[in-house]
Amino acid sequence: MGCAGSSQTKGDGTVKKIRKPKPWKHSSEITKSQLMKMREEFWDTAPHYGGRKEIWDALHAAVDADLTLAQAIVDSAGIIVQSADLTVCYDERGAKYEIPKYVLSEPTNLIQDS
């Protein structure tokens, strides 16, 4: 049984429901393996952009999860979502976390690996 404070309503405006990112196009055609390499490089270097490693880890887990689980991860980690697609978030201390669209979804011009 939950308490009134555990609902995901926007009562105070700080909780934003996560949604899938809008379709986007990469600057040039890109293969799945190239995209995966870019994503790996981002997550390997993300903690060096600032913020706390545990928040980056939670964001990584949320990005890889379905929307319901992603919402639960973000809420439990105390992440403040500015952009519902997770491109811009903050932690409780005010540190900013920016995630590029290529990490969140596939581009419309994704091509097969040859």
Automatic annotation (TrEMBL):
The name of this protein is DC-UbP/UBTD2 N-terminal domain-containing protein
Query: Where are the compositionally biased (Basic residues) regions?
Result: 16-25
Q: Which domain of life is it from?
A: Eukaryota
Please list the residue ranges annotated as the DC-UbP/UBTD2 N-terminal domain: 16-113
Cite the residue spans of the region called Disordered.
Answer: 1-30
By its UniProt entry, which PANTHER family does this protein fall under? Answer: UBIQUITIN DOMAIN CONTAINING 1 PROTEIN-RELATED
Q: Where is the composition biased (Polar residues)?
A: 1-11
